[in-house]
Structure formats: structure tokens, C-alpha cells
Amino acid sequence: MSEKNKYNQQIIIGSGVAGLTAAIYSARAVLEPLVFEGDLPGGQLTQTTEVENYPGFEEGILGSQLMEVMKKQATRFGARFVSRKVEKVDLREGSLSLTAGEETYAADSVIIATGAAPRFLGLENEKSFMGRGVSTCATCDAFFYRGKKVVVVGGGDSAMEESSFITKFASEVTIVHRRDQLRSSKIMQERVFSNDKIKIIWDTIVTDIIGTEKEGVKAVMLENVKTGEKTEYLTDGFFLAIGHIPNSQIFKGQIDLDEEGYILVHDSIKTSVPGVFAAGDVVDRVYRQAVTAAGMGCMASLDAEKYLASLNR
Ligand code: NAP
Predict the structure, then answer these.
(1) Pocket flag, ligand 1, residue 149 (CB < 6 Å)
(2) Which of 19, 84, 199, 309 would be a feasible disulfide site paired with 113, CB 3.0-4.6 Å?
């Protein structure tokens, strides 16, 4: 590792839409950002198929392809990439550094764009059916269930919103919730209750996903937590909407987080530590869209550039 890589004007942690957009802007500003790609280079979009709502692609674009192009765009202007995960950070004001593998890297500014991971139930096969009947993103995948039956698990606003959205395509949506009361806001509950295509199975958990590698999901196993009754429930799709977990564990105790681990920002994208900015799903508990992450990545880069200029180095 060269000395140049060890000391940087700017380090970007994360290579999803927020991180790569920040990298494009920072690279064009000749800051030569060093981007740590993390465990999932390209971020959550690489886990979806067609992206149809990212502006500029009339026919849609594959998530992985979009991320590949963004990386090339950032590289073209001088962004540098490290295929490593940042394991440790030291974000004391005036001495920002992070550790990945054996190396420690120092920087004048850091943009955190580590994203969020959808929460899973922890079933043995739910990840292996991802993209073949299991989804964590209704906005991305509901389209593929035109005229089909879908199960959504969860009782919060996401589950309500996603169920309503899926009914634009699916013939039938069944919400499976572990309690007899929803967590979501009343208005979203009312929307669900008045939708003829949605039914709710209460006090029930999903204990298994049934399907084949070739045909994908065929059914889910349900268990009523009050009676213990077990049923096989036929479905073409299974959407998880039980929340997200922001990827902020390594920043705990160093910058301000809310009680769920989302990074708290002020003045749009500034964290509690000067020189440290945050963008994308690690901050955003509401929109979680590629285009909003891109917008925040841009904002983080522009503000970091101003911050660097103020250091007069
Ligand atoms: P959430 O409010 O935390 O709800 C998660 C739901 O999943 C809860 O009903 C919970 O059940 C259930 N759940 C969690 N772990 C589970 C498990 N292991 N097995 C079965 N069920 C499980 O998450 P969210 O719905 O994603 O919402 C997150 C935040 O975003 C909220 O503040 C929400 O208001 C906001 N949001 C807002 C909008 C909007 O306003 N348009 C849309 C989406 C999200 P219990 O209820 O039993 O705990």
C-alpha cells in the first residue's frame, strides 16, 4: 500500500448509490476519493433485477449494470477503490482514520455511505430464494407478480405500504403478522383494511419457505403463535417488510446515532463530527430510494469539498 493511499483528502465508506455518487462528484472536484467497497460492492441495487424508476433509463436497467456504470464513471474522474470492508474507525475531531485489513488510512474528510440491510426472519432458506420468490423490496419486485398471490410479513408502515403497492399488480396479498395488532400508523392501516385484495392473518409467524430451485417459492409454512396450529399456505411470492438495520455498528460511540442506529445528521448531511458526512440508507429511514441516495451522496460530496477548502491545506 502506497503512502498516498494511506493519507487521503477524502475517504468514502460504501459503494452503493450514495457512495458512488459522492465518488463521482468528489473525483470531478479532484479530491481523488478513496472508496471502500465493503462486503457488497455496488450495494443493495446489485441484489435486485430490473431498476425501472431510476431517471434516465427509459427501458429500465439492471441494478448490477447501473452500479457498474456508476463505478466506471467515478473511476474515469480519478476515484480509487479498495475492495475491502472498513472494520474500525477513529473519528475524533481533527484526526479521522480507519482500519481495513492490516492497513490504517487517514483522511481529512470521511463520507459514510454504508447503507442498510433488510432485516430477515432468520429462516434457513430465505436468502437462497432471494430473487426467486423472496424479496425485500416491493418497489423493486412487485411488478413481477402480476395476477399472482403474494405473502407479506410484517405489521409496520413498510408492510402496509408495500402490501398496498403490490396490489397494483398481484391478484391477492396476504399480510402475516405475529401479533393481533398492527404497529403501523392508523391511516395506513385503514388503507389496507379497505383494500379488497388484502387480507391479514393475525398472531402468525412464517416458519419455512417451500419451493424448488427451478420454480422458486410455492408456499410458506405458517404457525399460529396462540394455538400452535401449522398450515401450508400457497403463494407465488414472499415479501419481507420487517424493517431495516442501518449498517452503522462500527460508528457507535463515535458519532451520534438514533436509538435504531441511523446516523443523525444536521444541516442535511453533516454528522456530529466535523469533516464526517453521511448519505443514503444509513441515514434515511423514510425514502430509501436509489435516487434519494444519489441526491444525498451529491450533497455529502459538495459539503465535504467546502469543508476541505476551509481547512486551507
Ligand atoms: P417497523 O415499524 O419496525 O415494523 C416492523 C414490523 O415487522 C413490526 O410490525 C414487527 O412486529 C415486525 N417484525 C419485526 N421483526 C419480526 C420478526 N422477526 N418476525 C415477524 N415480524 C417481525 O419497520 P418498518 O415498517 O420498516 O418502518 C420503519 C420506520 O419507517 C417506521 O418509523 C415507519 O413509520 C417508517 N415508515 C414510514 C412510511 C411512511 O410513512 N410512508 C413507510 C414505511 C416506513 P411487531 O409489531 O410485533 O414488533
Answers:
(1) no
(2) 19
